[in-house]
Amino acid sequence: MKNTKYYTPYEVSLHNTIDDIWVSYLGKVYNLTPLIKQHAGDVLLKPLIEMAGKDISHWFNPKTKDIRTHVDPLTGCVKYYTPSERFLHVPPPWPCTDWPTDSGRPWWRETRYEEGVLSGKTRRLRIVNTLTSQEQTIEVCTEESLNAILNRYLRYNAHAASYTWKHNGVRLDMDKTLGDNGIPDEDDEFYQLRMDRERYTQAIHLYFNDDLTEF
Fold first, then answer.
1. Which parts of the chain register pLDDT below 50?
2. In sequence order, which ranges of the chain are alpha helices (DSSP H)?
3. What CA–CA distance (Å, rounded) separates 117 from 120?
4. Backbone Cα Rg of the chain
5. Using CA atoms, how far apart are residues 76 and 69, in angstroms rounded to an integer?
6. Contact 52/141 with Cβ under 8 angstroms?
7. pLDDT computed for residue 6 by the predictor
8. Torsion on CA atoms 190, 194, 199, 202, rounded to nearest 10
9. Largest separation between any pair of C-alpha atoms in the chain
10. 96-123 burial by CB neighbour count: b if 16+ within 10 A, else e?
């Protein structure tokens, strides 16, 4: 999807403090900071805080997109499966008078915390500025367009849009992905051949257009 924002696992991992908590699960990225602030002091936040910046897909059933369940061997009842600790919005395993039954939609079913999509595969990319001879290697998402990659590169060059982006002398379509532009991800092949991918990173060359477009 054109307007989808993709994140690398590393980008998610940077949000790992109590004042800035992101997690990923089932292929999406969520900003739980508002949730943590809303329920500040609740002991059931502890498992979420401990997993800040990490993937928690193992908490979920990928088919139902709900928390995993199991059958309690003592009661025969289906219950949420939380082998580490019970967390926010998971009901207690037994009847409890202080459990609010009107807490509303559980946080994992809320779309308002969604930030974007976790990349299924990232790759390294060399970007060479032919005007200044400067070169940066950045991690990008295979699913994102060249325009999205340009936005990642702006931290190194605020005038990146003033350049024509080429690979092997061919002008690139900025609305397409690297793969769709004929720049294959060769990581698997390098692995099979026992080659160091760091030494054979694909390169894009930037050619200045003689203007100063700035985002």
1. 1
2. 9-13, 33-38, 46-50, 146-153, 187-192
3. 9
4. 22
5. 12
6. no
7. 97
8. 0
9. 75
10. eeeeeeeeeeebbeeeebebbbbbeebb
CA separation, residue 111 to residues 90, 105, 108, 117 (Å): 18, 11, 8, 12
Helix (H) and strand (E) counts in the chain: 5, 14
DSSP symbol at 187: H
Q: What is the pLDDT of residue 187?
A: 67
Residues 203 and 70: their CA atoms lie apart, in Å, by 49
User: What's the number of CA atoms in the CB half-sphere (13 Å) around residue 71?
Assistant: 2
d(CA 2, CA 5): 9
Q: Which of 154, 147, 153 has its CA nearest to residue 177?
A: 147
| Residue 17: φ, ψ to 5° | -120, 165
Q: Which two tokens stand for residue 80?
A: 């949420």
Give me the DSSP letters along 29-42: EEE-HHHHHHTTT-
User: Does this model's pTM top 0.70?
Assistant: yes
Distances (CA, A) of 69 to 45, 58, 61, 74, 153: 20, 12, 8, 15, 43
Q: pLDDT by residue (tens digit) across 135-192?
A: 999 999 999 999 999 999 999 999 999 999 999 999 999 999 999 999 988 766 656 6
β 122-129/203-208 pair status: parallel
